[in-house]
Amino acid sequence: IMTERTPLLHYRLAASVNDAELRPPEPGQAVGQPPGSSRQRSAPQRQPQKLSVFFGVVIPTLLSMFSVVLFLRIGFVVGQAGLYQGIAMFLVAYFIICMTVLSVCAISTNGALDAGGAYYMISRALGPEFGGSIGIMFFLANVCGSALYVLGLVEAIVDTFGKPEDGAALSAHHVLPSGYWYSLLYATGIALLCLLVCLVGAHIYAKATFLIFLVVMFVLGTIFVSFFAVHPRTITLPSPSPNGTDPAFPTTANFTGFKLNTLLGNLWAGYSLDYTTKTMMTFATVFAVMFNGCTGIMAGSNMSGELKNPSYAIPRGTITAVIFTFIIYILLCVLVACSCDRMLLLRDYSFLRDINVWNPFVTIGVYSSTLSAAMSNLIGASRILYALARDDLFGKVLSPAKKTSRSGNPWASVLISWFGVQVSWSFSPGKLNTIASIVTIFFLLVYAAVDLACLALEWASAPNFRPTFRYFTWHTCVMGIVGCGIMMFLINPIYASASIAFMLLLLLLIHYLSPTSSWGYISQALIFHQVVRKYLLMLDVRKDHVKFWRPQILLMVSNPRSSVGLITFINDIKKSGLYVLGHVQLGDLNTLPSDPLQSQYDSWLSLVDHLNIKAFVNLTLADSVRHGIQHLLFISGLGGMRPNTLVLGFYDSCCPRDMLLDPSMSTIQCGDHSGFDQKPPLFHFASLRVSSDRQDFGEFGDGKTLGPQEYVAVIADAVKMLKNVVLARYFNRFDRSEVVSPSFFSKGKKAVYVDVWPVNLLRPDSSSYVDTCSLFLLQLACILNMVRAWRTAKLRLFLCVEEGRSLTGSEEKLGQLLKDLRIKAQVYPVPWDQQVALHWQRQGEEEEEDYVNSFPSNATRLSDDYLLAVNQLILTTAPPAPAVRFLYLPRPPADTRQYTTYLRQLELLTQDLGPTLLIHGVTPVITTDL
């Protein structure tokens, strides 16, 4: 078979044998889907599972791992690397694949294993993204591998029976015409034979592989016998040049039989030029060639659909095959080193044929193993394609591959795979070495993905991951991943990098295009176990420091449809902190048949996804809004991640705007209290739906269940719990896209301003702007200005001063403070003597009373005229109007009887100001320290 005209055969047969899966998944049910799934359809009853450990696992794995390596590469390895390094290479290679075998055995014994092999394992363990991307690559590797082996078989046949291109027969058995087009014709004929076998069914292939196994074992037996039975002889070496006249190489070498001198001459490495490619061999290049013969370990696990007991058969069968092949390879290395000259091993890769008791035996072995590999790759590719089509990861693109025969054979997938093999032949024969490297790298990537799947399941510590095969740890998984990665880059770093990039591209494509699967996502378990739980335990509240403070926000939402503007705005000021959307539904669980909140979570999460915000959702059922908010303030968050700021919509009678309303529907319902009591309009928006009873998102109550007294009591409760409080007014019509630039490079947008009034405007007798609350205002405004969309906004800080005081001094002090706090803002002194005069005029008209300098007594002394005057001052100072205003929110009065007056004063103060935040801070949040 190996002559001077077939120098590249040992490279062209480089791909590992297909890890074929021989039975299609159940036609009526998608792989891994539970009974009753939406994908389940009526289908013929699937064929019974009949294969035992030996026929279903051992034989396919042995043939996949042996292939033509057994006959063509042993001499190459020993001749170049020597016996010591050759055995070391096999030890390293088998160590790598054994790590993957342990992962395969662990996953295969962790519950029911359906058809699909490696694709099924990876997709059900890591999710559809990894499963689909690896599945496509596995399919392409099998298609190219089938083409590779078919063309390799054609070359072997042509070398044995083909005429030279000049038409002159060298001997009586050289009867076949040769040439490029003839080779493609022969390849098409062999591929048609493989296609017919695959179309008939997997059981026919199983019987054929058993016959091939018997042939290969018989040929292997003759090889071992030949080392002892054949007498020493001189063997003519193939010429490296077509005319055979190259004088630089000897023309003969010796088969010496078992001699000590021969063994001593083959112990150490002797890397030299490869006579077929004229390239210098190294440890890495020889190891890469040798490793191609150690792949194919998943051929047995991919037979899972045909096995009587996959969980029992796969571990035992795979490990048995791996041990057997390792022993055979090591024995052959020793026998070859003891009986063959180094020159014979270096110059004749088909020397086993020349020393065999009957030369055609090795030829038959090469033909049989190559044909088996071609059929295995073809049928495996069809099963992988069928599984991918059944799982609908690529939508209608793969829908034709779902068609099956009455017996369940996926004939459409077989035809598509066969067509892919035919397309692969559009590459010239000289390019098949490249395909071989890509195929091997794809297989290694699949093996690494299996190790990754097992590692993820182990690290996630999922209670349902209980494999009966326990001879593995996360260390073996990591070693398998590292080993496969090293081998990929050792074979070809460029192709390895391109393969990983291609896998990532497929992963992103499936992630964004495919629907959510019901398989589960290992990422969720890993995030919970390895990230969230572990680091939340490490997040010690006793170690908190003011310089690392960030907002942890609980935003109470009554009607999410009219609160879109506020929801998106608060998302901008969270600064990577905790953000929780809270909602209270009135009710008593004792009087309800079930929890009404469970059915609402999906709608809320759909809203979060639609708005593209990073927020959690927390719903509660309570007898009153106040008690519900108390519940959420107590229980929201976990460990060191708990809300420190409560945001409420303002208590007013503004008419809301449904930001999710269908343009074809113009109805907007108005109520008395837009912050809490608006009922959402009837409307369907994708997965975010509002049912006819208007309770999908819940209500804080009907009519005026929440009164002004209770509203202010909620603020007071939050202050008692040391929570910062923010009241948001006029955000029901706030549209973020109309205010801020969508991109940093956007042009043509008008200037955006954010105004900050850090003085307690309800306390004109105290104009301090450096207390905790004022600094909290400055911090939130600075955080907003740090967001990319708001980065071009200009902060304007308004300093209210009286003419009797030094304007310059106050401005300089505030400017120095901003400099110390690293806040970039423009300070505007605002005289407010006229407004303050209205306040003191009211004080002179009233009877003097003894009171402390606190709000309860001051509340009765604030006139409507003063509040409206301050409101106009804010409204008319420094045009144009800002996108949002930050105002000082004083704490509620201690006397609960003044709650209504307090709320009315806030309403007058903020009347017609546009989007406004009233902010009260209770804890230090800013520092000048490094």
Automatic annotation (TrEMBL):
Q: Does the keyword Transmembrane helix apply?
A: yes
Organism domain of life = Eukaryota
State the membrane topology. Answer: Multi-pass membrane protein
Q: Where in the cell is it found?
A: Membrane
The residues that cross the membrane are 51-74, 86-109, 130-151, 180-202, 209-230, 280-300, 321-344, 364-389, 410-428, 434-457, 469-488, 494-513
Q: Where is this region: Disordered?
A: 21-45
* Compositionally skewed regions (Low complexity) per UniProt: 33-45
Keywords, A to Z, come to: Membrane, Transmembrane, Transmembrane helix, Transport
- Keyword set includes Kinase: no
**Gene3D superfamilies noted in UniProt:** Amino acid/polyamine transporter I
| Molecular function as annotated in GO | potassium:chloride symporter activity
Q: InterPro entries this protein is in? A: AA-permease/SLC12A_dom, SLC12_C, SLC12A_fam
Q: Which Pfam families match?
A: AA_permease, SLC12
What range does the record give for the signal peptide? none
List GO terms (cellular component aspect): membrane
**Domain SLC12A transporter C-terminal: start-end pairs:** 566-651
Which ranges carry the Amino acid permease/ SLC12A domain? Answer: 56-554
The biological process GO terms on file are: cell volume homeostasis; chloride ion homeostasis; potassium ion homeostasis
Which family does the record claim for this protein? Belongs to the SLC12A transporter family.
Q: What is the designated name of this protein?
A: Solute carrier family 12 member 9
